[in-house]
Amino acid sequence: MTGATGFIGAHVTKLAAEADGPPRVTYRDEARLDRLGDVEVEPIKADVLDRAALRRAFRGCEVVFHAAGLVASHPREQVWQVNALAPRLAVEAAAAEGVRRVVVTSSVAGIGPAPVDRPGTEEDTYAGWGLGLTYPDAKHEGEAEALAAGARLGVEVIVTNPSYVFGAPVERSQPGETSTRMIGNYLAGRLPAVVDAQTNVVDVRDVAKGHLLAAERGRPGERYVLGGHDVGWVELLERVGELSDVHHPLMVLPPGAAELPWLVAGEGVSLMAQNWRYSSAKARRELGYRARSLDRTLRETIAWYQELPADPRPPSAVSLAATGVRLAGRVGLLEGVKLAERYTGRRLVIRP
């Protein structure tokens, strides 16, 4: 197991340990093994960019889960190495050690933004080129390279494509990962705005189960979307407010917000603005995959965040902007937005 100390990887490791005993896991930083809590593992130090280290880690294994990845856009070279290069190195190392099957964790981002008029599927042609989005480009390249290496070297490679993942980590005292911070930032009043676009949300435990199903039943050379529920970002955060009884105003940005000259937006806004609705029909049909209800996932993610101590991070530009939106709401300034909403015919603000 590579990436065992990550959000998805830790949950896959936990399920694998429960099913078959302590799995062998790679790590770079020994301190991060704490993220596995009391899960029993066989740790071995290895960098996913080091072929020799990967071969030592994979020696004697029948199945490898390659879940290592970097959910980021910068530094671009590192994102590309970890997400685009490492999957091929993992398959090559597995082939050299006689490993039968490799399950590669990608993302729906690796399939690319879905067509505007329907949910995406595994068969869609990648539509991310030209958008300038480093993370999707790297994930797409990584899964393509892994599949090609598997075909060339005789290794059964199966790719999993999780959608936007929520839930609590294996070790609940750990802070939130990249995806779950959306809920954490909202609850803490650090989120100033949301993009009026669509996504697909899934529970991390369902994604972990999907990995084990892929290892057991997946067809070599295929990829499987592990998703849950299509939902708009606006609707999602309104539901988080209802379930948590925490209500903060949020500005609602149009899908083209990342291109507005006055908005300083990173890749996160550009990613959020795409259509990430995705179907998991193939995984349900071929793997027996199932996803729990959206409310159950949101409730449990909220409950975990509310257990954590206060976020010690200093204010950022984004959190200061969120403070400004809340203050505007308190003094009634957001009421004037109603006129603009009638004029534009679209939602511009989420009100408490």
Question: What's this model, at a glance?
Answer:
With 352 residues, the protein is an alpha/beta fold. The protein contains 12 helices and 12 strands. α1 (7-20) crosses α6 (204-217) and α3 runs parallel beside α4 (134-153).
Protein model, in words:
- The protein has 352 residues and is α/β, with parallel strands linked by helices.
- The chain contains twelve helices and twelve strands.
- It has a four-stranded parallel sheet, sandwiched between helices.
- α1 (7-20) crosses α6, α3 (76-96) runs parallel beside α4 (134-153) and α7 crosses α10.
- The protein starts with 6 loop residues before the first helix and ends with a strand.
- The mean pLDDT is 93.
Give the tags.
single chain, 352 residues, alpha/beta, four-stranded parallel beta sheet, 12 strands
